[in-house]
Write a structure and sequence with these properties.
single chain, mainly alpha, Cytochrome Bc1 Complex, Chain D, domain 2, 2 domains
Amino acid sequence: MKTYREQHDRRSALQIAAAALALACSASCALAAEPAAAPKGRADQGAVLANQTCVACHGPGGNPTMPDYPRLAGQLPEYLAKQLRAFQAPAGQRSHRTSTIMQPLAASLNEQQILDLAAYYSAQKAGVAKPRDPSRVEAGKKIYFGGNPSNDLPACVSCHRVDGKGYGPDFPRLAGQMPAYTSQQLKDWEAHRGGRGKLMTMIVPHLRAEDIEAVADFIAQMP
């Protein structure tokens, strides 16, 4: 028999996932009904800045060669801008995001430069990563599209779309992401439950260790 805490966690995770899906669907419908706003960032200026500051870790065009750094190519511009602002946010602010590498770099950027970088990276063609263990891909696919009812785990597709390309500032593109980076992010959300990124911190406790690795490997090879 499940404890009250387990039952509460189940309800919370499912309710949050349902609310997120409704929000994502509303956003996609709005995007379909209205012409996209002209981007404010300048991709050409973003390219200059990226090649000066970001390429060492994130690779040419935002496609990294090192496994622990995220792929930025093809990422949603709203999400990229939001994350850079989070690295700038003061400690203690709910949106604050920590990184010994990214915080000082983000602190040096003004708002126009943030928009320029977001415009540049979002326009780059995203590559795909190799799964670390191809035998886990099928299990990861089942989790991505169907969740895990036995563990009350909502499906990733509910928020990140069938193609893994996400919605707006809150649901990032996952397709092609570096699997080691994805795994670490999921583990970090579990360690900081209830803090920044509350939606994911409520869902991740329903992921088993093997689920984390499997879904990261499936996401990696999504085009």
